[in-house]
Design brief:
By secondary structure, the protein is an alpha/beta fold. It has two domains: 196 residues, Rossmann fold (3-Layer(aba) Sandwich), CATH 3.40.50.2000; 181 residues, 3-Layer(aba) Sandwich (Rossmann fold), CATH 3.40.50.2000. It contains 17 helices and twelve strands. A six-stranded parallel beta sheet has the order 9-8-7-10-11-12, with helices on both faces. The protein is globular and about 65 Å long. The mean pLDDT is 87.
C-alpha cells in the first residue's frame, strides 16, 4: 500500500490513506507526502466500520475509494448513491484456494510417510468448510459483486473471479504488483553486517523471503540441503520471515544437523533486504500457491536467479521457465538438482536473469501498476461520474 500510494502521489494524485494503527509504522507518517489516518482496530469488522466513519468525516469527497481486504464489505453495505465509487483489489481468490487445498492434507501425509517423520504442521486453513471459511467466501463474493470495479494482481485471477463469483470480465482489470528494488540499490548495498548472522562472502547463498507458513513449504529447501552440501559444501540457506512453521523448521534443522548451513533470520526490515539479495546466488520460492509474489519480483529486479514451484502464478511471472527454473516435483531431490544447476553457473543462468530484470523494468515497476490502476479509475469515473 505504501509503494502504491507513493507512486500515485508521483503521478499527481491527491492521496489519503486510511489504515490500521501500527505504532512502529506511525512514527514515519509525518515524512510521507500524503495524509495517513490510523484506525485503532485489530479485527477487520471493527476496522471496516471505523474506516467507513472516517471516510464520512473527510473534509472533501474522494473521487474514488480504493480498497484492499474484507474491510470494504462494511463500506459497501452502508454506502448510498451519493458516496464515491469503489475499486477493490483482489490478491487471492479464496474460493479457488479452498478448492486447491482440499487434497493438501493427503499430500502432506504421503510426503511425511516417504520421509518417515513429521516435518510440517497440519494445515489449519481451508481444511474443511467451516463457518469462518464460509463467511470469508460470502464476504469476498459480496465485495467483488458490489464494488464498482475489481483490480486483480494476476492475470488468471480475472477468470477465477468471473468463475467463482460471477463478476463480468469487463468489470475486472489486471494491475499486477510492483517492485521498488533498483539494480543500483542492490549493487551499492553494504553487506558487512551480514557476518553477524553467520553469512560470509564465500558462502553460496540460497535465499528465501516470505512467511514461514505451511503453504510456503520452506521445509523442502531445508531437506534439500544435505544433498546440496555434498557438491557445494559452502552452500548456505538463508530464510527470512516468520510464521506458523517456525518451530517445525527449527526442529528439522537440528534433526538434520544443519545449524551451520541454514540461517533462520526471522523478520528483518525491508531496507536490509538489498544486502541479502546482493550476496545471493539463488532465490527460491517453494510455496504451494502464490498470488503474485512481491519477493519474486524483487529477486528479478536484483538479478538473482530464481527457482520456484510450478504453479500458475510462478509460471506466469517466469514465462514458463524462460526467466527462471520451475520445479516440477515437490521433493527435496528435485529442488536440490535444480539449485545445483544455478550454483554451477553458466550462460543460461546469466541469460535468464538478464531477461527477467529487463521484463521487470518494462512491466512490474510501481509506476506501471499505477498506470493500470488509473485506467481502472477512469472506467469507474466514466460509469459513476462525480456528483
Amino acid at each position: 500500500m505504501l509503494d502504491l500510494s507513493l507512486a500515485q502521489h508521483e503521478r499527481g494524485h491527491s492521496v489519503t490513506v486510511i489504515t490500521r494503527f501500527a505504532e512502529d509504522d506511525a512514527k514515519f507518517d509525518s515524512q510521507l507526502p500524503f495524509d495517513v489516518i490510523r484506525v485503532p482496530a485489530n479485527k477487520s469488522f471493527l476496522f471496516g466500520w471505523k474506516a467507513f466513519r472516517e471516510i464520512g468525516n473527510l473534509l472533501f469527497r474522494p473521487d474514488v475509494i480504493h480498497s484492499h481486504g474484507p474491510a470494504a464489505f462494511y463500506y459497501l453495505i452502508r454506502r448510498n448513491n451519493s458516496d464515491p465509487p469503489i475499486v477493490h483489489t483482489v490478491h487471492a481468490v479464496r474460493r479457488y484456494q479452498f478448492k486447491l487445498f482440499q487434497d493438501l492434507p493427503n499430500l502432506v501425509k504421503d510426503f511425511e510417510r516417504t520421509l518417515g517423520s513429521r516435518v510440517i504442521q497440519e494445515p489449519k486453513y481451508y481444511k474443511k468448510m467451516s463457518l469462518s471459511v464460509g463467511k470469508e467466501f460470502l464476504i469476498e463474493k459480496y465485495i467483488c459483486q458490489h464494488a464498482d470495479h475489481v483490480a486483480v494482481v494476476a492475470k488468471y485471477f480475472a477468470n477465477q473471479v468471473n468463475k467463482y463469483y460471477g463478476v463480468p470480465l469487463d468489470k475486472i482489470s489486471v494491475t499486477y504488483n510492483g517492485s521498488t528494488f533498483s539494480p543500483s540499490e542492490v549493487t551499492n548495498a553494504d553487506t558487512s553486517a551480514l557476518r553477524s548472522f553467520g553469512i560470509y562472502d564465500d558462502n553460496d547463498i540460497i535465499l528465501y523471503v516470505g512467511r514461514t507458513d505451511w503453504v510456503k513449504r520452506v521445509h523442502i529447501l531445508v531437506q534439500a540441503m544435505p544433498t546440496l552440501l555434498k557438491r557445494f559444501p559452502r552452500a548456505c540457506l538463508v530464510i527470512v520471515g516468520t510464521g506458523d512453521q517456525k518451530a517445525d523448521l527449527l526442529s528439522l534443522i537440528e534433526k538434520l544437523r544443519l545449524r551451520a548451513s541454514v540461517k533462520l533470520l526471522g523478520w528483518i526490515p525491508h531496507k536490509n533486504l538489498p544486502s541479502l539479495f546482493k550476496v545471493s546466488k539463488c532465490f527460491c520460492l517453494p510455496s504451494y500457491w502464490e498470488g503474485l509474489s512481491k519477493s519474486l519480483l524483487e529477486a528479478m529486479s536484483a538479478k538473482v536467479p530464481i527457482v520456484a514451484t510450478n504453479n500458475p502464478s510462478n509460471r506466469a511471472v517466469l514465462q514458463n521457465s524462460k526467466l527462471g527454473w520451475l520445479v516440477m516435483e515437490s521433493t527435496p531431490v528435485a529442488w536440490s538438482k535444480t539449485i545445483e544447476k544455478i550454483l554451477a553457473g553458466g550462460g543460461e543462468v546469466q541469460e535468464k536473469t538478464h531477461k527477467g530484470a529487463k521484463l521487470l523494468d518494462q512491466m512490474y515497476r510501481w509506476d506501471h501498476v499505477t498506470q493500470r490502476i488509473d485506467t481502472a479509475y477512469q472506467k469507474v469515473l466514466e460509469q459513476c461520474p462525480i456528483g
